[in-house]
Amino acid sequence: MWVGLSREPTREIIEQALARHASGARVWWGDLADPTFDAEIALSIDPNPSEFPFVINGWVVGGQESHQYELGLRLAGELCVMLDCSTICDGSHHGPTKSPYWSIIWQRGVPFLADDCGTLFADYSDGLSLEERQQLGPVKILHPIRMDPWPFDFSAPSPSTAAAPSPRASAAARGAAPRA
Length: 180
What we know:
Blueprint: E1 2-5, H1 11-21, E2 27-29, E3 41-47, E4 54-60, H2 68-83, E5 87-90, E6 102-107, E7 110-115, H3 120-123, H4 130-135, E8 140-144, H5 167-174
Parallel strand pairs: 2-3
Antiparallel strand pairs: 1-4, 1-5, 3-4, 5-6, 6-7, 7-8
Helix pairs in contact: 1-2
């Protein structure tokens, strides 16, 4: 899970946004490899030299890994409104093809499908020459998309449901709203 922001977030704001969508989850700020790690969500805030200079990198663990995509969407939408800024998150389940370059950009609470292929946001690395870096552009906003909110259960899975995802989880993984 990752969320890029055009405005710097605080840990407190991020935790408030997470609490709305993963209320029982414990948050860890730091490295998953830390031997004292004891949480369901690990987070860090990292720099990015693009129009989204702050990136929240998150890892959902403890049997909740299948919720990473949906939680990233919700966190990006929530932080867009809370911080009054543009945000970007993984949109690979919402694009017309299977590609890691589909993103969702949130502006004023509205989601847009975007393409981050060949961009400073997605393709920057420390080893790029100045010329290569200058060839990378901004993320391309394509069109608004509709996202219907649906119930989201971040509770720990029971042993009987851990093996098979629920219809809602399967729909969320495809980026579609489940049938009622």
